Amino acid sequence: MVTAVASLLWGAGPVSAADALPVLFGQGSEEARFVVTELRLPRLVTGIVTGLSLAIAGALLQALTRNPLAEPGLLGVSGGSAFAVAVAILLGASSATMTTLVSQTGALAGCSLVMLATRSRGLAADPVRLVLAGATVTGLLLSLTSVLMLADQRAADEIRFWITGSIAGTPLSHLRAVLPSLVVAGILVVIVASPLAALSLGERTAMGLGHRPGRIRVLVIVAVALLVGAATALAGPLVFVGLVVPYIARAAAGPDIRKTLWLCLPIGPALLLLADTLARVIAAPSELPLGVITALIGAPVLLIIVRSGRMPTL
Length: 314
Known about the structure:
The protein is an all-alpha fold.
């Protein structure tokens, strides 16, 4: 609630917190009401949806791979989604629904590559090697995206602005477009939560409890693709949110994935809204790219995890 109120009060524009505060109580000037209700409020809702989606996706990936470094932005899932959207923009796609579907398809492809990598000998048991493989895939996808930007100058500016990550100016039509897929993803999360907790004890134990590990993996991959694709369609490829939030939630709740998922619900939006507010006020009257702030927050956490004594699988 604190970060949500801060997101409504502070911004890079001329409307200060003192001007915006009366709007929350039904007062204030016309300009302040317009900025708060028409600009900052949709941005707040977008931040909540994006933060929640990336946090849950990161927690699911980490539980499935039993790897504390598994994160959509680090392992090529967000990169695959971003590349697919860049292709769609180049081809002239303008519909919010089309962008969302393309983004989720790219995320599904990226997530499938991640799972293939974790099933390869040596990678599943070595978190650092898995991150290196993901970084290679991400770098390749970013390079291909840069090639697309060179191919069409008209689309290059839109791709360049979008790929840096931002929740500013996202129309409500985009939020309505991702809502159905988020509902489906939520249902899948509810279905896989308990089986994932059993799977953390080992495949044989999970099978003994009546679960099917192969089916669990497929459902988790689909859920992650829906969540990351929706978040990328809304805000672009944001890294480290899916790493930091599950790390904080797991530190507070313990290894039980069900408790971790519950804590991700408030922590994910709070972290993203905090990052977005900082992006607005640090360089006011300009704004920093949101992806830069999330990287500045997440990079130290990544180093802490790598250097900690709990680096092996979860």
